[in-house]
Structures are given as C-alpha cells and as structure tokens.
Amino acid sequence: MKRSLVAILILVGTLLAAAAASASTIRAYIAEFTVSPADNGNLKNTLQRLLATRLAGDGVVTVDSAAEADVIVSGSYTTLGKMFSLDAIAKSTGGKQLATAFEQGESMDALIPAVGKISGKLKGDIVKQYQQAPAALPAAPVEAPFKAPRAEIERPAVAQEVVKAPASEIVRSEATPGWISQRLSGVYSAVATWGTKEFISADDKGIHLYRPGAKLDLVTEVILPDRMKVLALDAMGPEANGRVLVFVTIMDRENIASRIYALQNDAFKLVAEEIPYMFRTIAPYGGAKKLYAQQMGRTDDFYGDVYEASIVDKGVKLSNPIKMPRFANIFNFNLFRDQSGKSYVTAFSDSGYLLVYSDTGEELWRSSDKFGGSETYFQRRDWENERTNMTPFRTRFLEQRITVTEKGEVLVPQNAGFFVLGNMRSYSKYSVVNFTWNGSSLEEKWRTKQSQNYLADYSYNPVSKELVLLEVAQKGTFGGKGGSVVRLLGIE
C-alpha cells in the first residue's frame, strides 16, 4: 500500500512539474524581415533565421507559424550609406507591444553581433513581461488514477524476435561515388538533362549550358533581367534535327512569365516568352517523358488541373487534364502502377511527407518521415497574411521532383539538417531514396550515401541509369557568392 501511495505521489508531482514547465514556456514566431533597399533582399530569410536561433532559450521557444505563437517578432534592416540599422519589435498576438530593440553598425562584420544583442534585449523584456503576469490559480487536487488491469501480452519466441536484416537494408560507409565537377561559383537552383552528357543549370542570373569533360566547360548562357527569378528548369529532346527544347518557369515580380528556348548548335534561340504557365517534364509510370503545364491563379498559387502540353505556333496547347489531389501540384507529383496495373498518384504534402493517393484522390498512405525539402520559393502579396503574420507577402516553397523509374520504383530526395522553421529553410545534407509499392505502403529499398551538401535539384537518365545531382556546397550569405557542384551517380 505504501509503495502504491509513493508511486501516486511521484506521478502527481511529475504531472504538476510538466504543467508548470509548459505554462512558463513562451512561444515566439519570427516574421520575415523587411529589407531596404531591395538589393539586400537575400538578407530577409537569413536575418529571420539568425534571430530565431538566438532568441530561443531561457523559457522562449520559436515556432513555425503565427497561429501557434504567444509573441510575434518582426524586424527591419535598413542601410544608409555605409551605415546599417537593425530594428525589431515584439508584440503579443493581441497586438500589445512587449519589447523593442535596435542596433547600428558600419559594416557586415557588425551584423551578426548586432543580431545577438537585439535577441538578448528582446528576450529579457519578453520574459520580464510574462513574469509580471498574474499567477495562475492553484491546481485542483489530483485524484488517484485508476490502475488498469495488467494486459495479456503475447510475445513471439526468441527465434522470431531476432531477424537478420537483408544486405539491401544495410547502409555501408564507402568512398564518395560517382563523378564530381569542379566548384561552380554561385548558388544554382535547377538542372535539366535530356539523355546526353550536356546539361543546363539555372541560378539567379539566368540559364547556363555546361559540357562535362576533364572538368565542366561553360558552353553558352542566357542572362535574364534582374526582376525575373527562375523557379524550374526542364528540357526535352533532342528532336530529329538535333534541337532540344528548354522550358524555363519564370516568376516576373508576382506573375508567371515563362520562356521556351530551342538549344541547337550550342546556342539558345528564344521560341516563346511571357507564357502564363508553369512547366515540368515528368515520365509518368516510368514511361516516356512528357511536358506538363499548370496555371497560377489570382489567389491560388497552383490553379486548376495539370495538363499535358505541346508547342504549337510558338504557343502552348493543353490537353488530357489530370485532377490534382490535395497537396499535389505540377512540381511535386508523379504517377505509378502496381503489378496489377492499378494507377496511383504520389506527391509531397506541404510539410514534406510523402503521400500516395488512389486514382480517385483518396489518401492511402503517408510516410512517417519527411522527404523532399527545397529552398526554392516565390512570394506573392497577401493582405490576409499581413494581418496575421505582419508581412505583406506569403512565401510558397516548391518541392523536389518525384521520379518513377521504368521498374515502377519511386525515387525521392531527402534533404535534412541545420534549420527548417516556417519560412526559414537551410538544408545541409541529403540522400536519394528508392521506394517500392508493396500494395499498402511505399517500402524503402535502398538509399544513396548521405552527402554533406544541400540538394537543390536533380535529373534521372533512364537509359544510363544515372542521377545528375545539383548540390549547393556553400550558401550565399552576407555578400558571398556561395558555391555549387554537380555529381554524376550511377544507381545500377
């Protein structure tokens, strides 16, 4: 009896301690910084991430949405001549001002220390405000919990509990496989191939044709206006005359203004521009590659069905619509069949979980781990978001490609590491994972050795069974250009 009483007291004490700890935790959401002048726009997410990592601790935790928060912190970065000013304000979700802080400096070397000082000031004032709040009423006495009867548990025999893992499920540490390019200056975001050794890549300046040899040689390029941002890059061909069609999905300010180029004789020729469609080439069911298109609506980032697309008279003809299930869009879906020929749709959720839908749109399976993961995004004005998150724009991240092989297997990347919180993403390592459908779930068959870089994009060559992997080896922050590499990896 004494032992039971002691156990009950310990349990009650633990619950009360956990409740007290939970009550003392202050949840803070860090909104995206406003930056002036706009030339420093790449600092928006960097400052957001830096402040979030430094604000966390001592009773403050950061959350990835304003809906979960007790406190919303917004900030601004302004440069005047050689000077910068960093300002931040913390408000309760009801709009009450809790804390303000600012720091000034004369160079980028002073920026990170300034963020640290601001986070210290904000944290101290926020915690002080919450400590001054009226204490909660004492909790009601806790009744002794009902003790459930002991369950009858059937345990397998020892011989059944010990199962030797098949060799295919063992990840071994080996030398870095495949061919790796020299370091490319800049942060590249997209890559496209068409079955030959050449490939096209994209960065914030434009698109570039590379040819592998002893090293990567830049053959030709197209520089885009500064206001344009490449969201996706795809290619199909070569045609009978050797021409390769290149599809560049472009965000021009807040509108889609895509372009189509013809690549022939090592030169890009503009075929069409200002096209209001987003493009993606996909090999559905592991078959022939097809071009697909989807519109962007006034309020919907991905509007309506995804269509097969063809080029007619310098324009785009749409046919054979595919209705997208929940979460699916042109950039994150593919189609596969099981051994009986039944069709399924696979896609990523907004949170990064891998999904499988029936051909009628019913969700059949969801992964327990997150896959995909991309730092490529676009922004659109959103007044509702401004009222909620104190920023006039909403941020939408694109997802990684999902590839279905000729065997019906599903290839997906898995970016992970470093920092992922709301609109702040900075991945630091990745693997490519191969799944097979067992009739009820996707089962992992193998994965590549983990690389200590972020995978921005990839392409699969079904003829040579090779992956072209575009990795970011160093992020471009605080005026640095960053660096990228291309890896060629055979998977069979």
Q: Can you offer a commentary on this structure?
A:
The chain has 492 residues and is mainly beta. It contains 5 helices and 36 strands. The strands form 9 sheets. Strands 1, 2, 3, 4, 5 and 6 form a 6-stranded mixed β-sheet that branches. Strands 7, 8, 34, 35 and 36 form a 5-stranded antiparallel β-sheet that branches. A hairpin with an 8-residue loop joins strand 35 and strand 36. Helix 2 crosses helix 3. The longest helix is centred in the N-terminal third of the chain and has 22 residues. About 9% of the residues have low confidence.
Q: What fraction, in percent, of the residue positions are helical?
A: 10-25%
Mean pLDDT: 83
C-alpha geometry: globular
How many DSSP E strands?
A: 36
Low-confidence stretches: 14-23, 134-165
Backbone structural class = mainly beta
Amount of beta strand: over 45%
Give the SSE layout:
Blueprint: H1 2-23, E1 26-30, E2 34-36, H2 43-55, E3 60-62, E4 71-80, E5 83-92, E6 97-105, H3 111-131, H4 158-161, E7 179-180, E8 184-185, E9 190-192, E10 199-202, E11 206-212, E12 216-223, E13 228-236, E14 244-252, E15 255-256, E16 258-264, E17 267-275, E18 277-282, E19 290-295, E20 303-312, E21 315-322, E22 333-337, E23 343-348, E24 353-358, E25 363-370, E26 377-381, H5 383-389, E27 393-397, E28 403-404, E29 410-416, E30 419-421, E31 424-426, E32 429-437, E33 442-447, E34 454-461, E35 466-474, E36 483-490
Parallel strand pairs: 1-3, 1-4, 2-4
Antiparallel strand pairs: 4-5, 5-6, 7-36, 8-36, 9-10, 10-11, 11-12, 13-14, 14-15, 14-16, 16-17, 18-19, 19-20, 20-21, 22-23, 23-24, 24-25, 26-27, 28-29, 29-32, 30-31, 32-33, 34-35, 35-36
Keywords: Signal
Signal peptide: 1-23
